Amino acid sequence: xxxxxxxxxxxxxxxxxxxxxxxxxxxxxxxxxxxxxxxxxxxxxxxxxxxxxxxxxxxxxxxxxxxxxxxxxxxxxxxxxxxxxxxxxxxxxxxxxxxxxxxxxxxxxxxxxxxxxxxxxxxxxxxxxxxxxxxxxxxxxxxxxxxxxxxxxxxxxxxxxxxxxxxxxxxxxxxxxxxxxxxxxxxxxxxxxxxxxxxxxxxxxxxxxxxxxxxxxxxxxxxxxxxxxxxxxxxxxxxxxxxxxxxxxxxxxxxxxxxxxxxxxxxxxxxxxxxxxxxxxxxx
Amino acid sequence: xxxxxxxxxxxxxxxxxxxxxxxxxxxxxxxxxxxxxxxxxxxxxxxxxxxxxxxxxxxxxxxxxxxxxxxxxxxxxxxxxxxxxxxxxxxxxxxxxxxxxxxxxxxxxxxxxxxxxxxxxxxxxxxxxxxxxxxxxxxxxxxxxxxxxxxxxxxxxxxxxxxxxxxxxxxxxxxxxxxxxxxxxxxxxxxxxxxxxxxxxxxxxxxxxxxxxxxxxxxxxxxxxxxxxxxxxxxxxxxxxxxxxxxxxxxxxxxxxxxxxxxxxxxxxxxxxxxxxxxxxxxxxxxxxxxxxxxxxxxxxxxxxxxxxxxxxxxxxxxxxxxxxxxxxxxxxxxxxxxxxxxxxxxxxxxxxxxxxxxxxxxxxxxxxxxxxxxxxxxxxxxxxxx
Lengths: 284, 387
Prior knowledge:
Chain A is an alpha/beta fold.
């Protein structure tokens, strides 16, 4: 596992599309990442299509389900990530209990040499919603065991805060159920989570199209994780490029600051100059 | 072939025009067609027909298996599907073995409204590609297949899809090959080495060798063991994709069509045979050559099948099998010259080895005899993975 030295947050982002208006590097668990788009691999029709989509996404961190994967097998998705120099974020998808998730995380740490884990403990197969109690239980124990834990949770501000206090390095609230493509069902809760969080907030699950990813970033999320929206699209690489642009656009919009929502029109020109504006001298 | 193998002059070795390494459906089809074309052929395999072919369900279903981004595979599959009736007629004629070829179509059903939304999108894609599919209501599905659950939301009927019993296909191919004068060497090939006069030698596990003008590597997921390291061959981009598959037995006519379904996003299929057997598959796991049948694998298949066809739980469970699909990065097979002159790859058929057997055999025999290669098979040239 290549690890980058920990350096201060003062560096231009590696993504040229992100622009250089601000020093705005994404730092996760002390590591700098040049992209705020985190990818998943599930649902890709072939490794080649996945490879093209990952390339188009510009991602530097991609999550892989460890439960049914042999890390030593040749030609696997891990090979694709290694070849592209993309950091692997193992996840515990498919686990229903804290016990299974901890076991899976330990196997992943041993196999991949990373202590990062996206903790996913599912409550039921129908909704694939995260089980908050099992998730919290597993998070506490994994943190104590030295893991950098990124828990997948519902859009619950109280749980997010508790997980941060328990030592998680990020929180990953859902926008909507996994694979549903329903977008962000409760933007208000996502805003509340962002407002209170001292660790990165990564919107995970529910993204259906580019505007959903942009909205997550506009709401103040630090990054977006998605898979199906890209892998199940008719043209996955094109959708990956769209997501990359959307995440960048949403982040820039967040930093730029949106204007207030007003009830009535307000002419942009002519009229009184806005407060603080420098009057333009007419050229004759 | 009982003499000591080492250091014999090449002229003493058993020599064939073609040695086919691997006796699955691909290798046996190639060998049979090559023998029919007048070449002397030997298939080398310790246990022909016991690999992925033995596990496979034998679906000839390019229409209902179509996926976004995979139109070249669709075109290849359609060409091979069209070749199947002629292939079957000659195979049954040559062997005297009936292979339970059935062309009653695939009915693909949805277990929920969400699954139906996915199927509707698939149906629109299939229609846009010019494929023949019909949208059915749940009741129409059940009129065709009364064993389907009342909860089935609807489905798609792909009338052009067909299926065969792959185990009978193997039996027929072995008989037809033998009748056409082909040999089967019950041993594992371990290495290919150049020999004098442009020929190749195949070393067997027993230590003995075979001398051949051309060597076809059709060893499925094990093909890299023979191809990797040959001069001019990069690492063969073939990996095992584990599949667990079940066989059930019930009354004849329990199902009449190949039933595929989507249950909460997970695909499952049931393939009925003339003798009452039903093949139920399959998992897809990236676990290397993991031979284990797992509780979760069997449970998931039965759970999803029961949702679509509640009566499956009353059937006898006669077999649980693991097979290894030879997967490639783009899901297209590798058919064509690979490595040193005279070596031809015919592997990487992933889920579609049985479907693609006729087009694979036609392509390889064309390469062996200098006939034109089918245009549609050009997408399978192993050269596409050369750096």
